[in-house]
Fold:
Amino acid sequence: MTQLYETLLCSPGMKESVKVDLRISRKSILLLSQIIQKGLTDSGAQSSEFATIAGTESSHELQEMLKNCLEKANLFELDERLAKLMKN
Structure:
């Protein structure tokens, strides 16, 4: 499965920027944020595999995208507080 994703991510045009206009609920933004952060940071076998496939550059890009979405939805502070609660 890892080779499949690595192949897809290396396909021509995958690094091109695409404008996406979404209208989604704050709830969905917060849930998506949690799912992506968990996938990039968890130490489980599948999660760490995802982070390896994504690579450092893509991981940073995803984190910036999440930060931007959270800020636009006025959820950035709430997300930070939830992260602190989950660590405890």
